[in-house]
Write a structure and sequence with these properties.
The structure is a homodimer of 437-residue chains. The first copy, chain A, is of the alpha/beta class. The first copy, chain A, is built from 15 helices and 17 strands.
Chain lengths: 437, 437
């Protein structure tokens, strides 16, 4: 397959998909959900092939867990599709309706972005979620999943594609590419692909961003911070830190850096509990010398097995593992400056009972998500009530944070007149009156 | 000046500017307007130096017209600032307010993008407009204007900067760079500059896009089309084509390609009038052989001095001159396909009295602006009632079309809880209820 030729065909099909009615798009989704349920045994059989290959190749258990597509995951993706059907149509919303002059009417209408390339990790449920979001929002996806789920992806894509065609979508409205080298072909399709959404490792996303002229939405790093203020509730702080680090350690919204106010009372109360909790959960602490000096003193009496290491704060980074960095800061403003300069503008939390300090933090921290007294792990499209997400964006352009349907739409301006020319407005013969309707 | 160091300082100042109240931002704008009026003689004196240098260097008259900053232009930019003050605050708008669960509240709030690099042509009024839009929207601009207006830019920037500082903005909230090589330094400031807006020639914008990892908003080409349908009002068609070509020939929203329905009656009525009008206005026609054959026959009887040339449609392009391409198409769908594949997704118009055909065109043409029965020249922030524009975007990501205040904002998600962790939702101990407030 020559990717460019297929994508070029898709480009001409995309406006037709964009013009499909809300009913037609919802019908297609229902059709997808039905077919997935009907063909579940075939899907599981193909998934077994991927799992067998993974076992042969000695793939790690954590990854195998993601590859697996079973009754539970099928139920979840079907529930997701059904939820998408109930959401408001993101397309065709009039967001501006203005009479520029008598008989010259400007409207701004939301519409699909068009052709979207999504490159995602080896997770069959991701293929279904991304496809569903694209169908709901009238976009044409080019899908490239992880190679470890080739068999499962192939049957899932086939089922979804057949279902949308049966529901009246035009041929060529979805495309799957399977070969890794086809990613490079896709990256060269600027002018045809409107948006790329890469998901995966920092290095992979960076590679995509560095090797294409197509706009890219997503995130490379996820260096999330938790700042513990002197007015923090200590138990909330420890509990939230543990959840943010351990609930899904490899996630981009897991916490990587703790900033703790340099307050004697806070440090006196927090550190023993924190050290104990980290030790019990097998989390290694990489702190500045000042932090480690405190920990060292505590470790002798309470921490037992806590593993720790003194590092320079310039070595703080995204671990995606049971390791956390820590340093003390004098004020909330020092925490804010650290986060804005060293963070990745993903999700950062403050733990405090002081609402004034919390407001300052949430106002000045320049991240997609700014939280008070809850875990950074909440940064997720499903948990925000978006039904699903195609990814999380740390860019400030277009969509920011978890990206659901709203991030998959753009708009166009429609202007209807009856022969108006700009010359008449330039000469003063006509003039604008700008009436919002 | 080391641009990176200055921009790094600006990055830490940007959240403070983002937190300025609506009143403070409006006060700053009023202060700018007052100071500009007060210091007009000094401004005109500096502008005279630029004009003298232009005369010495033999700069073309059309460009000198843009360099000139006189009473009229000063009045216009001050009127623009006063209009901006009256517009709704784009910052701090709550666009989502949702209780995820009891005591866990998610809000989405609009906020400034942050640090924005704007590289613009030699037009002093552009410097004032862009600065004003950034002040109104709480953004920190790095401004690089055309070298032909160095003296004028320097004094204007100084006046604006002093005014905003006087109004309480933090030091370093605006930056001007003057050297061409500093553009390359700016392009390397990814992670510090959030958005680049280049204005200027196709080649220049393309250079910026190809040499930075910072998101770029703008447009390279502006290949705008007018499609004349068989149900067109002939006089409207000719009048609109002339306006779209001649009212400001060098503008990105000037028409470059005419698509005319291959309908005997239409061609019979339209072509004589069109040929005559083009000839009278000194517009050269570069048509397909079929078009030129028709024109040739007409030229003998009516056109007189019409200059024309037969070319292949693959040679159609952006002229920014008194030249227009033309070809015949069988249907509106053929016109749509041509525009979607060969256009630049800027602004495209249909001339027809048939509303069904117009709707099809406006639905399926994938451009920032789709017009019926009016000139493509209306694609402009001022004419849309946005007060001013920082540029026009042909991207479908973030802002599309003329970009005013709304295109200079992003949003952040704020989540406030009282100790909630994701583990409790994963285990089923807690569950989301998603209530929009």
């Amino acid at each position: 397959m020559v990717v460019r030729d297929e994508v070029r065909k898709m480009k001409t099909v995309a406006p037709l998909v964009a013009a499909m009615s809300n009913e037609a798009r919802c019908k297609a989704l229902k059709c997808v959900a039905e077919k997935l349920a009907e063909k579940k045994d075939e899907i599981f059989a193909e998934n077994k092939k991927d799992l067998e290959a993974a076992a042969e190749n000695g793939v790690a258990d954590a990854i195998v867990k993601r590859l697996k597509f079973d009754e539970g995951k099928l139920r979840d993706v079907i529930a997701g599709i059904n939820q998408l059907v109930t959401l408001d149509d993101p397309i065709g919303k009039i967001t501006l309706d203005r009479e520029l002059d008598e008989g010259l009417r400007l409207t701004r209408v939301t519409c699909p972005i068009g052709v979207i390339g999504v490159i995602f990790e080896a997770r069959p449920d991701a293929l279904v979620q991304i496809s569903s979001l694209c169908i709901r929002s009238g976009n044409c996806p080019v899908l490239k999943g992880g190679k470890e789920t080739t068999f499962t992806n192939r049957i899932l894509f086939g089922i979804i594609y057949d279902a949308v065609i049966e529901a009246g979508f035009p041929e060529g409205c979805m495309l799957q590419v399977e070969q890794h080298n086809e990613i490079d072909e896709l990256l060269k399709c600027d002018g045809l692909v409107d948006l790329l959404i890469p998901r995966g490792s920092n290095a992979f996303v960076r590679y995509i961003m560095d090797n294409t002229h197509i706009p890219v939405m997503g995130h490379a790093d996820g260096v999330c911070h938790i700042y513990v203020d002197k007015d923090a509730d200590i138990d909330k702080a420890v509990n939230i830190i543990l959840d943010a680090k351990t609930q899904y350690t490899a996630a981009c919204n897991a916490v990587e850096t703790l900033l703790i106010q340099r307050d004697e009372e806070l440090i006196g109360k927090l550190m023993p509990k924190l050290v104990k909790a980290l030790a019990e959960n097998g989390i290694k602490l990489r702190g500045t010398k000042e932090v480690i000096d405190k920990v060292d003193a505590l470790a002798k009496t309470e921490a037992g097995s806590l593993e720790f290491e003194a590092i320079d704060e310039s070595e703080f980074k995204e671990y995606l593992a049971l390791i956390v960095s820590a340093k003390f800061v004098d004020t909330v403003d020092e925490a804010i400056d650290h986060i804005n300069l060293h963070g990745s503008h993903h999700t950062d939390a403050i733990i405090t009972e002081n609402s004034e300090v919390a407001e300052r933090f949430m106002q000045l921290v320049d991240s997609a998500g700014v939280y008070q007294n809850c875990s950074t792990r909440f940064a997720d499209g499903f948990r925000y009530g978006f039904g699903a997400e195609v990814g999380i964006s740390t860019s400030k352009i277009h969509a920011r944070g978890p990206v659901g349907l709203e991030g998959l739409v753009t708009y166009k301006y429609k202007l209807v007149g009856h022969g108006q020319i700009v010359g008449d407005y330039a000469s003063g013969k006509s003039s604008f009156h700008f009436k919002d309707l």
